Amino acid sequence: MATITQRSSKAGASRRSWNAHRLYTKLALVLTLVCAWSGLAAVSDAAASPSTHISATQELTGLLYEHRAYQSPRTSAPLLVSLPAHTPITGEQTTLPVIGQANGRGGTRWLRVMLPGRPNGSTGWIARGGTRQLSTSWHIVVNTSQRRVWVYLHGHVVRTFPVVVGAPSTPTPTGDFFVEESVIMPASEPGGPFALALSARSDVFREFDGGPGQIGIHGRDGLGGTLGTAASHGCFRLATPDIDWLAARIGPGVPVNIDG
Predict the structure, then answer these.
(1) 58-136: CATH homologous superfamily?
(2) Domain boundaries, the chain
(3) Integer CA distances (angstroms), 27 to 24, 45, 97, 171, in order
(4) Is residue 38's pLDDT more than 50?
(5) Using CA atoms, how far apart are residues 234 and 25, in angstroms rounded to an integer?
(6) pLDDT at residue 158 is higher than 90
(7) Residue 260 gets which letter from DSSP?
(8) Which residues neighbour 103 within 8 Å (Cβ) at sequence distance 6 or greater?
């Protein structure tokens, strides 16, 4: 009996050792697969992300009263546009990205700002007096080929969403733009529940549905459209949870780069 007991103990120990070895092997395999999958996911995400360098912050300026934008930093330069102190839809303070500064005659300080409206991508010079200096750490990049939105905070991607972009006959304009105002859409209006009205204008419609052909990032209420397709009149349509998330964080002046 002693011999049998001893042999059984050895057999049990051997089985335990073998089972432990199998368990460790399985764990090692799982960890290897997880690490490999994570690495592939990281590579995939990096490949899908835009290559545009995004700054950690963007300087903005808010207008305290109406300003005139000139072609160069002097009042004798050609006048480009008069900018109201408030946006046309919501009455928010007009807020513009600042992309340059200069000192003029008589000690006047000038700001080179991005301008809303046509022609797309316009810039002009305004006097710094009567403005409020601001900044934002948010930035939006949209790629119409990939039909996707990337949201940056402090220069890093924090969210990405699939999106409906302009149809081939009514393409979304590309270039450097910004959010003019954030709009809560009435329940009766299509495109809710929120819309980020951009400085971009359609290259096809001089006006649309009573408006100036303004491009927006908005929801799909009353419009539909399959995410990841090209089916809109030029605007971007997001799923309701995605536009809700954006509208809670993105305000006037936030830069928006649209790539083809």
Answers:
(1) SH3 Domains (2.30.30.40)
(2) 58-136, 138-259
(3) 5, 26, 52, 51
(4) no
(5) 54
(6) yes
(7) -
(8) 109, 110
H helix or E strand, kind and range, residue 162: strand 156-162
Residue-wise pLDDT for 185-221, tens only, equals 887 787 889 999 999 998 887 655 546 689 999 998 8
Please give the model's pTM, rounded to 2 decimal places.
0.78
What amino acid is encoded at 5 in this protein?
Answer: T
* Closest among 213, 160, 228, 216 to 184, alpha carbons compared: 216
8 Å CB contact between 110 and 104: yes
Which pLDDT belongs to residue 50? 66
Compute the distance between CA of residue 238 and CA of residue 96 in angstroms, rounded to an integer: 24
For 138-259, CATH number out of 1.10.10.10, 3.40.50.720, 2.60.120.260, 2.40.440.10 equals 2.40.440.10
Longest dimension (CA), the chain: 113
